[in-house]
Write a structure and sequence with these properties.
The protein is an all-alpha fold. The protein has seven helices and no strands. α2 crosses α4.
Length: 202
């Protein structure tokens, strides 16, 4: 993970994206797509309109990534795959982590290159998932390309399950090992600090 400062707006976009993604992939497990001529049921309609709102939030998130403070993760750091320098930084961080684990030591929590690439992949995947869903519903449903777009949407949904489980698991592991990444992202660390100040004042 990375200990870079995160603005309140970055945290808010992160929380909103997480909530929407969890809702959508859970909702997709029991909703049914209506057959041609049938009226859609409410779980399907909720999925459609929540996904549409999610796409707008994700697009705003991308705009924020482009214009936010330079101390936060920069847009280019989300895409290290065409930069030998950034790829080398990722490999060095992974190598350092593996070496520490082989020596039965807790590895460094400061992995900015890895964290940026993982978050970039997740943001791209979530955007692709929302975009293919919106494209199928509003543009390609009933067209020759509709099946291909829908299959892409389902594939992105399956990949999102894998990403979400892995991402949450790693975040929880960091938290348990002493790196309060979840506390920082959800304002819990700040809230606990305020509580300690209030108790001390009493």
């Amino acid at each position: 993970m990375s200990n870079r400062p995160r603005s309140h707006l970055t945290r808010l976009f992160h929380v909103l994206s997480l909530v929407i993604v969890i809702h959508q992939i859970v909702n997709s497990t029991f909703m049914e797509r209506p057959l041609p001529g049938d009226d859609p049921e409410w779980p399907y309609l909720i999925h459609v309109w929540t996904g549409t709102a999610g796409l707008q939030i994700l697009l705003c998130f991308w705009i924020w990534v482009l214009v936010r403070d330079a101390r936060e993760t920069r847009f280019t750091e989300f895409f290290p795959w065409f930069s030998p320098h950034r790829l080398r930084a990722i490999f060095l961080e992974i190598d350092g982590t593996l070496r520490a684990l082989l020596k039965a030591r807790i590895p460094s929590f400061e992995l900015p290159a890895v964290a940026a690439s993982v978050h970039g992949a997740g943001l791209m995947l979530a955007t692709g998932l929302a975009a293919t869903g919106a494209a199928w519903y509003f543009v390609f449903d009933g067209t020759p390309y509709g099946r291909m777009v829908l299959m892409s949407h389902k594939l992105a949904g399956n990949l999102m399950w894998v990403y979400l489980v892995g991402h949450v698991t790693m975040g929880a592991l960091h938290q348990l090992l002493g790196d309060p990444v979840i506390s920082r992202m959800f304002w819990l660390k700040l809230r606990r600090a305020r509580n300690r100040v209030e108790v001390a004042a009493e």
